[in-house]
Amino acid sequence: MEKKDLGFRLATGAFALVLILIVCAIGYELTAQSMQSIRQFGFEFWRTEIWDPVSGEFGALPFIWGTLYSSVLALAIATPIALGIAVFISELCPATLRQPLVFLTELLAAIPSIVYGLWGIFVLVPAVRALETAMPDALRQLPIFAGPPLGLGMLSAALVLAIMVIPFTSSVAREVLKSVPAAQREGAYALGATRFEAIRAALFYARTGIIGAVMLGFGRALGETMAVTMVIGNNPQVTTSLFAPQYTMAAVIANEFTEAADDLYLSALVEIGLVLFIITLIVNSLSRLLIWSMARSSVAVQTAEPAAAPIPGTA
Amino acid sequence: MTHTAFRKLLSSAFVVFCAASVLIALVPLAFILFFVVTQGMRAVNLDFFTHMPRPVGEAGGGMANSIVGTLIVTGLASLMAVPIGIVSGIYMSEYAGTRFASAARFAADTLNGVPSIVIGVFAYGVMVLPFKQFSAMAGGFALGVMMIPIIARTTEELLLLVPGSMREGALALGATRARAVFSVVLPAALPGIVTGVVLALARIAGETAPLLFTSFNNRFFTTKLNQPISTLTVQVFTYATGPYDDWHRQAWAGALVLVTIVLVCSLLARFATRRLERMHARS
Fold it and tell me: Would residue A23 count as lying in a domain?
């Protein structure tokens, strides 16, 4: 019988091995395909601002700039809203509303990226253009509002990304808040805290996990392709202007991969993909580490204390 | 204002902020669904499902080839991902404490976070470059790679929910581990796993980026697996970024079909999970 179980273990283990092999194969394949570009340009690739495939000049700085800028803007918009949703659903709202609200916010995550892009092109971009045109001239002098009001550009991309990131961050933050021991809030209420102060204490207790949730959203934003490609304007330039059309790493691969006529061009695009892979790998691993360490520490606390029922409607 | 009054005011403001956040997130959702439904309903008709695209610039026609293409590509993806996903999920739950299971779990989560466009580049290198040919197979491979970790993690979580006493009961009766898993544990978790597969399919069917340079696009009807093939998502992308009004109209229709698929699958899954939860509560 032992022997048979060993066979079962090896056979199922082989399938689990496939998962590990795929990750390794992605890393290997991307590195192998981008070797030509890595040899030719070295680190200069990431410091050069000019992307001109026709004359064979490849610099990826505008893409890394566009990716980071759009993701950071999206996070700045999405994080407070996502945390607000998580707090509302897990701490404030009546129990009957909880399930429907969870379903609706998760629906936001289920809508395909291409549908966001389509909506972005035909609804959001014209709205943003109107907003940009209505902006007073005094403000238009500022560098972050420089350039013609096209609609297509960084602002539209950041808004679409923010909407797409909210459900991810809020659902992880909700789980994290759920793992905060009731005693934390009870302690705060017992000391005379208002509702805000008690929730702030819970959020502070859960800070590691909350940071993990935000980073998870960051990882999503970095890799998002279709919706961003359709609204960011696809113009490789490094500028802080919110109105200017820019470009991201994922978008340039999506747009130019099938047009890449020579090997060096293709290799340069694959190198961008390789770096995107490495960045998201690091961000996601860090985020999981944070969420996981939070879950573990609070499990330890919960088992050490007797479970208590939450106190309704204090303060 | 006294300090206490200020604290109370701050607390109320915070509650209002949280409620407002929910509204802020639901407004875009309502907007997107509203536009997809109204614009899509105007464009969708029987022709959309049964006709081929007309030549460029001519109005009318449909996306019959893209619908079939999406079915073929997602079908190929499931053929690849369902067995690998479920069996590796079994390993991760049966040998949950082992270091190898942790490594596999880490790999699954990593794979889940890899941007879909990067999966596309990978599939291009493995499935397109060696054959010098875009193909439905390459598209299916790319989507399959995305589907594996989702199914593996769902299977693992659902198997861990099955009471340990069931597994132990089977083992105590002299069953081998394999027998216990396939005859007792897996059937108990099966409805949940099927739900998970349906949800994974819904997510995969909406993917565009991994298909752009694997299954590519095709103006003609084909079921050949070694040929480029049209899919709903790539076709919506082509139409949405194209110059013609009729293309835009069809893009909305395609979006409506995609959103309907997602919505129906999510509702079905929610219904199924509820029933499962009730069953668990009773036992």
Answer: no
